[in-house]
């Protein structure tokens, strides 16, 4: 989903860059001169291990024989589908070459249509002195972009994928094209065989130090008809699924100079040709996810470029501070249209919904405790738990918190007031967590935050590790992503055999989902002014208040008991709610037909 906080994209998108540069978006007209690839044999064999016989030919022009047919079809496609007004000729399939026989093809092409610019995809080993002379002359008549297939800066990888050139040739090409005044867009693949996160970082930092004008990022695809596919059949190669690729991608973008456009984030492969990875996010959804995550974590393109000192962003936009009845503050979140806590008392809610029913003090008396705080938010649940450690100095409390929105923690650090009864400075602790620094909390305790979508970050946690889990997401209608059977199963996997989970939520679909995930489910005692919540335990004997019979009947016998589902951990809130509603309708129709 696109996060509403994202008023300004966290990276320079190619379309926005073109509007700034040309006054309007240039729609690409993909053209295939059928030049082949100098890295392949005459029979088509050889070539890069990841490339199939189609090269990078555009899908919309496949089957068109002549260049003129390709242009006419591509222009029609862009005009009809996108309302295109300006065009860029894009010579993309395989690698462009520039011999005397090929040069007239470019000139005739550019004379045939009124292109604003031309982009030519090629390899560094295709850029001969003759090619540089031709491109420099062409650049006098029309703006030329060269999209250079770099892929990586590591020679061992280039050899591993049979690239046919080394990194030095790419570096030389970038410098030479820049000297000639020709724009250079580099192509990079993240996830090449044998490469690590550190390799990706080195590629990013090395390219960022060179005079590049744009970058096009691809995730590695294993396609049918490639050497890589044969390797994968013999021994499966590791590939990056959407969440892990997003982490590497965002780090890469942060290392790019802020003024260059990011032309693309992912690669495209026909479904019938793709072997791996099989993503469950659509291309547009993945882009929205990256924008959401970068925005929430306050990351921007260029904030790691040059490793200079960066100003801290202003946290808390979209949040309205509200004082609750117990004197503690909470926020109103304009995007979710909800408060983070009950207006009856933010701190009170933490105590009465989590600390007391979780029997945290009693647990600490028995020994060390590992706590998982899902949806840290303003931090009251963790901070109240930390404050409880002063009552038993012999035990340690280790807290791991999951939170997507770093801005909320930064805003909380500015607005929460430390109470005289607190054993440590909450404001300082929050400020340190926000900045990723060591926290000044009681010596017998520790706390850390994993930033990101909890559906993904939870998979990075050790199994059977936590004694106690606090689940404090927004309501099921606003944040259903964290109230599904599938997420509950992930929670169960990281809990010890005698652990319990606490949540304020008492919704029937949530309790039903917890039961389906394998938990024993009961209620928590109402405390003070608060309603009772839900306790989910790994063992039946840890349930003090079982669910009433009428509620169990609703769960088992009515559509109210249908839980939320998110089998791949990528659905949006709307998709999850719509899926449940569709299942309710199906069940009612089945009941009606059986009568």
Structure report:
The radius of gyration is 28 Å and the shape is elongated. It has helices at 14-22, 67-82, 103-112, 129-138, 155-160, 167-179, 197-208, 227-234, 242-255, 283-296, 346-355, 360-366, 380-388, 406-415, 426-435, 454-457, 485-493, 508-516, 549-557, 573-593; strands spanning 26-31, 86-91, 117-122, 143-151, 183-190, 214-219, 222-223, 262-264, 274-276, 319-323, 329-333, 338-339, 369-374, 397-403, 445-451, 466-471, 495-503, 520-523, 534-537, 545-546. The chain has 595 residues and is of the alpha/beta class. The strands form four sheets. It has an eight-stranded mixed sheet. Helices cover 35% and strands 18% of the residues. The relative contact order is 0.07. The chain contains 20 helices and 20 strands. The model is unreliable at 1-6 and 55-63 (pLDDT under 50).
Give a quick summary of the entry:
The chain has 595 residues and is an alpha/beta fold.
List keywords for this structure.
595 residues, alpha/beta, 8-stranded mixed β-sheet, 7-stranded parallel β-sheet, 20 helices, 18% strand
CA gyration radius, whole angstroms:
28 Å
Separate helix tally = 20
Largest sheet: 8 strands, mixed
Helix content: 25-40%
Main structural class:
alpha/beta
Beta-strand residue percentage: 15-25%
User: Tally of extended strands?
Assistant: 20
Distance between termini?
Answer: 40 Å
Overall spatial form: elongated
Unreliable stretches (pLDDT < 50, length at least 5) are 1-6, 55-63
How are the strands ordered across the major sheet? Answer: 15-14-13-16-17-19-18-20
| Overall mean confidence score, pLDDT | 89
């Amino acid at each position: 989903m696109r996060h509403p906080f994202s008023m300004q994209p966290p990276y320079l998108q190619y379309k926005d860059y073109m509007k700034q540069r040309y006054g309007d978006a240039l729609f690409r007209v993909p053209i295939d001169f059928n030049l082949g690839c100098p890295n392949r044999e005459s029979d088509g064999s050889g070539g890069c291990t990841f490339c199939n016989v189609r090269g990078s030919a555009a899908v919309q022009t496949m089957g068109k024989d002549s260049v003129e047919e390709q242009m006419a079809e591509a222009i029609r496609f862009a005009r009809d589908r996108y309302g295109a007004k300006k065009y860029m000729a894009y010579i993309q399939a395989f690698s462009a070459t520039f011999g005397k026989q090929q040069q007239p093809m470019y000139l005739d092409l550019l004379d045939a249509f009124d292109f604003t610019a031309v982009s030519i995809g090629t390899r560094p080993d295709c850029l001969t002195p003759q090619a540089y002379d031709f491109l420099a002359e062409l650049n006098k008549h029309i703006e030329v972009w060269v999209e250079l297939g770099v892929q990586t800066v590591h020679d061992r990888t280039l050899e591993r994928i049979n690239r046919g050139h080394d990194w030095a040739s790419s570096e030389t090409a970038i410098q030479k094209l820049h000297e000639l005044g020709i724009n250079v867009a580099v192509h990079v693949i993240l996830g090449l065989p044998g490469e690590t996160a550190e390799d990706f970082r080195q590629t990013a930092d090395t390219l960022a130090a060179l005079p590049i004008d744009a970058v096009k990022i691809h995730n590695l695809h294993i396609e049918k008809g490639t050497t890589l596919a044969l390797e994968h059949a013999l021994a499966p190669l590791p590939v990056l699924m959407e969440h892990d690729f997003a982490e590497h991608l965002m780090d890469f973008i942060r290392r790019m100079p802020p003024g260059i456009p990011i032309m693309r984030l992912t690669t495209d492969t026909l479904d019938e040709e793709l072997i791996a990875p099989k993503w469950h996010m659509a291309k547009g959804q993945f882009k929205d996810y990256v924008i959401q995550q970068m925005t929430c974590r306050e990351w921007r393109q260029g904030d790691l470029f040059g490793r200079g000192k960066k100003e801290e962003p202003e946290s808390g936009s979209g949040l309205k501070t509200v004082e609750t009845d117990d004197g503690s503050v909470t926020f109103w979140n304009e995007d979710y249209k909800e408060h983070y806590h009950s207006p009856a008392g933010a701190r009170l809610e933490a105590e009465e919904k989590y600390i007391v029913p979780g029997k945290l003090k009693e647990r600490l008396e028995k020994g060390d405790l590992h706590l998982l705080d899902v949806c840290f938010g303003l931090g009251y649940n963790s901070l109240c738990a930390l404050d409880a450690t002063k009552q038993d100095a012999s035990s340690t409390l280790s807290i791991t918190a999951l939170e997507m929105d770093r801005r909320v923690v930064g805003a909380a650090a500015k607005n929460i007031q430390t109470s005289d009864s607190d054993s440590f400075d909450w404001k300082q602790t929050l400020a340190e967590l926000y900045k990723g620094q060591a926290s000044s909390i009681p010596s017998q305790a520790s706390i850390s935050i994993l930033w990101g979508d909890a559906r993904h970050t939870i998979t990075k946690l050790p199994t059977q590790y936590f004694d106690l889990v606090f689940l404090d997401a927004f309501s099921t209608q606003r944040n259903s992503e964290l109230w599904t059977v599938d997420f509950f199963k992930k929670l169960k996997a990281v809990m010890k055999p005698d652990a319990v989970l606490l949540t304020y939520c008492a919704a029937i679909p949530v309790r039903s989902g917890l039961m389906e995930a394998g938990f024993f489910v009961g209620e928590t005692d109402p405390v003070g002014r608060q309603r009772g919540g839900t306790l989910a335990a790994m063992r039946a004997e840890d349930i003090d208040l079982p669910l009433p019979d009428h509620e169990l009947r609703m769960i088992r016998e009515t559509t109210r008991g249908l839980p939320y589902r998110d089998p791949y951990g990528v659905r949006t809130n709307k998709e999850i709610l719509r899926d449940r509603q569709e299942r309710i309708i199906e069940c009612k129709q089945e009941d009606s037909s059986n009568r």
